[in-house]
Specification:
Largest sheet: 2 strands, antiparallel
Order of helices and strands: EEHHHHEEH
Radius of gyration: 45 Å
Low-confidence stretches: none
Structural class: mainly alpha
Mean pLDDT: 76
Shape: rod-shaped
Strand order of the largest sheet: 1-2
Amino acid sequence: MVLSLSHDPKAGLTCGVMLTWCDEQAAFISEELKGYYAMSGYPLLLPILFTAYQRRLLNQERRRLWTRLLEVETASGQTGAPAIFAGRDASPPSNDFDRMNKGVLEVIQVAAAWMSYTEMLLSAIEVIQESIQHINTTTPHVRLDCVQAAESVMVECLGFTSQRCKVMLSDLHYIYQRGQAQMTALYNYIAKNDAQSTLDISTNSRQIAAASKRDSSAMKGIALLTMFFLPGTYAATFLAMPLFDFSNPSGGPTVRSGFWIYWAITIPLTTIVLVAYLTYLVRIQRRDRLEDIKIARQTHDKTKGQSTHLARDLFEKARGKW
């Protein structure tokens, strides 16, 4: 709403132009003018009605903001104050932290904006009160009695509006502080959940490590049993091969002429298997070492980049300050 006035003290005529954004504003001013028709000649009637409408608007926004704060507190469940809101329709606590965070931020930002607007309205009321004193000194004596009669009513109206604005400013300040407390409680609740999740992951990791240790113990037992039976198995297999002749009349075993073929095949094959395994092991170790170097380099570059940006921001702020 925009208002422009001009007043002629000699003629007692006040001309004004008011631009409204909606029909509700125009209807409010029209109804108020009908109620104060006997004081329509008072030059500051329209500004006083203008402040009354702004006070009414601020009161509506304060109530809406208070309802929004209670909605957020009910949704988060992070409050020790009784939720006098929505009665039976109050929804249970939610886990949509992103929506709750935006709701709390909305309450804080809007409360700060309306606090500033209320302070500006109080400043405008002070200007109008100063203008009332100026009117008394510029009004001709012929019309002075009529102006002073209306002045007492206008002063009371301004005093009421000023007092209500101060109460609303206090309420908005309380909503602002309560919104900040809700945001702090919400952040602490999220941090608590993150810590609990980390604890659960740590517990699961310990359980997995214990299971891996049990599996490792079982594998060690199998390896020990294998090593225990391996010599006997090898001896039985070696002696069962047709490389020895136990039918010698002398009673002792005789090595046949093809015995060298076994060693000619076994020794190179064993050598090839060992070389292949060692080659594979070296390649795996080299790949792991290169991955560790790459990760360390990326971490160093990221840290260096953050330090560079931080130093640049500090330099820009310092240069802008000086």
